[in-house]
Design goal:
Blueprint (H helix, E strand, L loop, with lengths): L16 E3 L1 H7 L50 E3 L6 H10 L1 E7 L9 H11 L11 E6 L13 H6 L9 E3 L3 H4 L11 H7 L25 E4 L3 E5 L12 H13 L5 E5 L16 H12 L5 E4 L5 E9 L2 E8 L13 H5 L4 E3 L5 E6 L4 E8 L4 E8 L15 E6 L1
Parallel strand pairs: 1-12, 2-6, 3-4, 4-5, 7-8, 8-9, 9-11
Antiparallel strand pairs: 3-14, 6-7, 10-11, 10-13, 14-15, 15-16
Helix pairs in contact: 7-8
Amino acid sequence: MKRRKTAAAAKPARKATVVDAAAYRKKNPKFPEAAGAHVFAPDRMPQSFTSAPVVDTDTKAPQPWRDLPPPTGPAPYHLNLGQVLDAAAIARIQDTGTMVFHAVGDTGGVNTVTYQENVATFMGHDFLAGAPEKSPSFFYHLGDVVYYDGEAANYFFEFYEPYTNYHGPIFAIPGNHDGDVNPSVGGSTLEAFVRNFCAQAAIITQDNRESPRTAMTQPNVYWTLDTPLATIIGLYSNCPEGGRLAPAQVQWLVSELSSAPVDRALVLSVHHPLYSAYGTKPAGPMNGVIKQACASAKRSPDIVLTGHVHNYQRFSAALLPGKTIPVIVAGAGGYNKKLHTLSTPFHTGKRPFKLAGSDGILENFNDAQHGYLKLTVSKSPRQILCEYYAVPEPDATVTAPLTPFDSVKVSY
């Protein structure tokens, strides 16, 4: 006689601190308030985690939509990890049932490379001598590789040189700064990004002065990375604040979501955030577009990785009813010393946070330290472990290995 399985007891709902943006603004009015077109400081309190960004066109020109460059590879724009790593590395992933990779965005140290190089140094420490199965197989960049306008002249100082000693391949999706065009320099949108990440052959490009790193051979600026344990769909959300996707890319996304192998983890990456608690850079149209794509595909990713906001934020949210997943902002990869600091209620209240009138829960954040993600995909159990490592200041003395600032596990 079969033993009847006992249903697991339902976990009690976690209590989240509710932040009411309207009530906070009423209780804490700005003083002094600016007159006319003057602006003194950013408004760090968002209307919601998914509110559209507000751009004052009287003081700041909006970033325009820029048509995409032609693909360098055939549709549907897939690159297999086995085309970049040798057979032994792929076999090791398959045999151990484990794959580790890094992810972070907004790295270009246009004003100082100190913080970018500091993060890169600690990422390099994750390559463990004698334990290749625990070492990263690659670094997946979440956009804004080069500031401020994707200039080719900055690729060596902001990309090739800081990652000279990074021992794995580096893949990327573009951010808005990669797609912008400097009018004093000229050129076309994403010209240097395509040359260095979407090359048709693994060559040393004209933008790489003396690093041994060859150009990456991605087939398009939006594309899918196929690996033994995970499918990583990468979008290009263009230049306007909040992000935009052309209809053709949305259709491609629906197809990629629905056709991705069900026995592997499904990761979605896009530069602009789907959720954000930083008022000056809240989420915009991307949230609704991605949710609609998931509904059309009848499938949700297992985790979403984004950048753009220069800090770390981890949300839990449902892009498809019935499946709550981690939605991460990891944009503290090294651009400038100053990070994007969240509003006071998020520092004085108890985590997690819910914003009145908004879906999504802010589980944790770090707006004081640069850092990076390390993701470990396991076959047994079928799980993604996503860890955020906050790195010490460049002049700090560090004698012990870093421990994660935050981590989350998600089954796939």
